[in-house]
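Let's inspect a concrete specimen:
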Amino acid sequence: MIENQERFNRTLALFDAANAQDPNRDEGQPKELLYAQRMSDMIARFAPDASEAAQLAVRAQHIQRWKVPRNTYPITKEGYHAWRTGLYAFQADTAGDLMRQAGHDDVMIERVKKAVGKRGIKSNPETQMLEDVASLVFIEHYMLAFAQSKPDYDEAKWLEIIRKTWKKMSKRAQAFALSGQLTLPESLVPLITKAIS
């Protein structure tokens, strides 16, 4: 339930303005703006009853992601984890600052920052909701392109990626993914089926 629709809309507009600055393009639009809209569309389909904090968090999930490029950290496993941690903190802080501009209180800001910062997956419902929505968006919109960009990955590697994604999701999200309400990438359906069976 949205406490104040005008403030909620103002916050989304601030998030979208921040993401509209993305120099990278996807389908002719700023990449992270399109991603954020897909996240909001997915939560509306998957969990139309989601809390205001969860709805704001999914919209801010990748906010200004391009400002923290992967190559600013060492190209090692440790470097990758440090980049992810730094990125989550940057995105949480950016979302929090914009929410404060829109007039949100500290309690709501902290709830959104906790979800965007990926704190408490499996224990915090709003962080888990963000993880579910991100996984569903990845499967429907990005998994096929990711597969095509990694021609050197063998079947075992793909099964591992799909299983990792599946494991992050709640039982509710897994059921939604298989319910026919999610558009699965057709060429990957046999792999997905094999991975989760």
